[in-house]
Amino acid sequence: MIDVMRFAVTPADLLKMTPEERGLFLLLGYATNQLTALLKLITIATNVTPADPVAQRVTGAQTQIFVRLLVGILREALLLVEQRFVSSKLGQEFGPKLDKSAQDALGRLKKRFGTSGLLAKVRSNYAFHHPDIDDMEAAFQLAARSRAGFASFPDRIRSRSAFHGPIFGKGWTARS
How are beta strands 162-164 and 151-153 bridged, if at all? Predict the structure, then answer.
């Protein structure tokens, strides 16, 4: 059984909030929906390992795409928290009112993702943007030297078609 709670919020409740509070509340809900949907897709994609090697490669490539999108959306959600909560008047007002577990979680987010820039790198250079031609060529040359495999898997059913190749992206190489 799934244990789901319902927290009813009426328009009257939302109107009691400032536009900044209301906007943040709604955007955090939207970000949660995005993350939950992608996590479900990743769970489904990794639930079974196909016996056929071609199906394994296609499924693996599609799963990597879902994971990269998830990382990009995580970065966007982190930016939302950083810009519209932590660095804002809302953060100054409500940050100290968070319970200990929420303050600890916020601290872990800042520590884990605030300095490395890994989420930003994946989001900006790979998950949501296509690399420029020079980055593509450099990654291709490296992949060709490493004998990384390229393959195309066309199928009459589009959801089973795929192109398989090394990781390409700005600042990324076939070994990144």
Answer: antiparallel
